[in-house]
Amino acid sequence: MSSATTPSATGQHQLWSVDEHLDDILTTVHPLDPIELQLLDAQGCVLVEDVTVPVSLPPFDNSSMDGYAVRVADVAGASEEFPAVLTVIGDVAAGAAGPDGQPTVGPGQAARIMTGAPLPPGAEAVVPVEWTDGGLGAGPVASMTAHSAAPEGASGEVRVHRPAPARAHVRAQGSDVRAGDKALAAGTVLGPPQIALLAAIGRGTVRVRPRPRVVVVSTGSELVQPGEQLADGQIYDSNSFALTAAARDAGAIAYRVGAVADDAETLRSTIEDQLIRADLIVTTGGVSVGAYDVVKEALTSIGDPDAEDGLGAGSGVEFRKLAMQPGKPQGFGSVGPDHTPLLALPGNPVSSYVSFELFVRPAVRTLMGLPAETVQRPRARAELATDKALTSPSGRRQFLRGVYDAEAGRVAPVGGSGSHLIAALAQADALIVVPEDVTSVEPGTEVDVVVLG
């Protein structure tokens, strides 16, 4: 952790600001080392090097239509009343061999050609089949007769009812990208279109920073797996599902661990077992000052420099109070021999989710290797749409759930400020930010908005 921004140096009970806590996290967490991955395994990852085009796209002149490859002069005066009559000398299908294996189109000739097929020697343009009689001797047709059903369709005569200029319906070699061009720049996140481009230029693997593996652990003896029967005093475990989904939404490979009972040794053992598959560990619950806050109990004492394995080696987790609402209690540090980052979040559902968006998501996206200016959610300014003033505690940065209308430039609060109101959270697509020095926000005031959607 960064000592330069550690308010606890002035007193153990010093409040950290939201920005100080986030800065400490982002100066400690570093991008994962690059690896070479197969294309589909690289989806969602960040390129670490520029990719240059080895072969032009398209690699040859090819037809953009099903039709006939022709010479321009042969169809120059073609019309419905006086069609150009051409001799069909053969078929050119997609995947056809090079020029030596294709028919050469001479004066008064045409070759049936399919979409994506190479333009044969001698041809200067393609006329769509809809501009012809399809070789059937009648009026214009809508499609070609399948070669398998009528192989003789590749010979005989075709009547062309319209002229075509040079290069009509021809995709030129290199019209997409040319050999030597930069296909993708380092820092690009690989989505489906980027994967398609890499495949199209012949790249089977690519060097990227892998998607971080995030393990989510919820704590509390009162938590029950959804789908099971609730007993008195129990509630369903929603936090681990919310945070695992949020980690995946941020770009991580996320693993959810079933709720751990309020026992420090069990929690320590669980975290130790998860280190083998974790680039980042997130816990929820047990970070406050109660008698059963086991995350704090289990992790505060670790960091024995003589430990050779488990959580002790290279470990240290600090628990803090932040000047924010919700989400005042937070923990951050590292565990295990590889100094795996660990963020300990509060247990109340809204506190947990808001904390994830503010602190964990930026950490995940930093591990991915994304630029610093893109790791946080986008922000906007919007007019507060409410019937009465919003109140906020002095000295705390408050994050209220809201519904944001980007087109109108307005945001409306949804639900109350309680940190247990999951239903209101489900309706929200933004967080309304009330600064530490503001205790009341009047309707119509322009406020900062963290855009979640």
How does this model look, in words?
- The structure is a single chain.
- The chain is of the alpha/beta class and 453 residues long.
- Helices cover 17% and strands 28% of the residues.
- It has seven helices and 29 strands.
- It has helices at 18-28, 192-200, 239-250, 264-274, 294-300, 349-367, 422-427; strands at 15-16, 35-38, 46-47, 51-52, 62-63, 67-70, 84-92, 109-113, 125-128, 156-160, 170-171, 182-184, 205-209, 213-219, 223-224, 235-236, 253-260, 280-284, 316-322, 324-325, 329-335, 340-345, 379-384, 390-391, 397-405, 410-413, 430-434, 440-441, 446-451.
- Strands 1-19-21-22-18-14-17 form a seven-stranded mixed β-sheet, with helices on both faces. The protein has a five-stranded mixed β-sheet with strand order 9-6-8-7-10, with no helix packed on it. Strands 23-26-25-27-29 form a five-stranded mixed beta barrel.
- Mean pLDDT is 88; it is low at 8-12 and 303-309.
Q: Calculate Rg over CA atoms.
A: 32 Å
Total DSSP helices: 7
Helix share bin = 10-25%
Strand content: 25-35%
**Main pleated-sheet profile:** 7 strands, mixed
Q: Summarize model confidence as the mean pLDDT.
A: 88
The outline comes out as elongated
Q: Report strand order across the widest sheet.
A: 1-19-21-22-18-14-17
